[in-house]
Queue: 3 jobs
Job 1
Amino acid sequence: MRGWNHFFWAFIALGILLLLDRSLSHVHAQTNCLTFGEARQAGWFAGIKLRPAAKVKNAVEKSKGGTVESVRVCPGPVYKLTVVRKNGSVVTVTVPAVAQ
């Protein structure tokens, strides 16, 4: 009986580890965005003509009616902007970074 008890708890621990692994990989997928300086050092901008971030920021502020608090560069490349609207809500906007 004691052996089955150990097997049961080992099974539970394995299940918890698998759930944690999936949740951590989801967090990692969200954190692969970089600041402009980090993206430049990583070579993300080499040979790519990007849209000016200032123009993108101004257009998003105008369309969403708020203030852009942060701009990150994500793979694709895309800009992810966090906007705090006048009513206090927070919106994340994703805009293609490559110039047309």
Note: The longest helix spans residues 2-30.
Job 2
Amino acid sequence: MSGNLNSNNIENDTFNLNNEDSDYKDLITRLKEIKSTIDLLEKTLFK
């Protein structure tokens, strides 16, 4: 029985790491979009 619990814990940990990696990639993408928006606004303001 404890073998199943350990196996499930490893699978859950792997799943959590994959989610965190995906969240990190989403955050980086969003930050790049925000940076692009700021750059565009700066160009518009300082014309």
Note: The two ends are 69 Å apart (CA to CA).
Job 3
Amino acid sequence: MDFALFMERYGYKILFAIFGAIILVIFGVVALSVYSVLKLYGLIFGAMILLSVAVYAFFVQRRALNAYGEAHGKYFYDPKYGKKP
């Protein structure tokens, strides 16, 4: 069996397995971290910590990174780029 026939027959299955493993590792790390926080601090206090981390990530960190990006955009890039004179 040559390489082209092998890839035609098994290539998509191999790629699916690789990407599936990557996605499982990502979700596994998240699930393991949530489990460890809940086990370490208990259900109520652990849930409060996870909720506070989620609120911080969605509101504070997003705004800070947006302001950081705008400041760098003003400093490093020409604001008149792409505009007609």
Note: The longest helix spans residues 3-41.
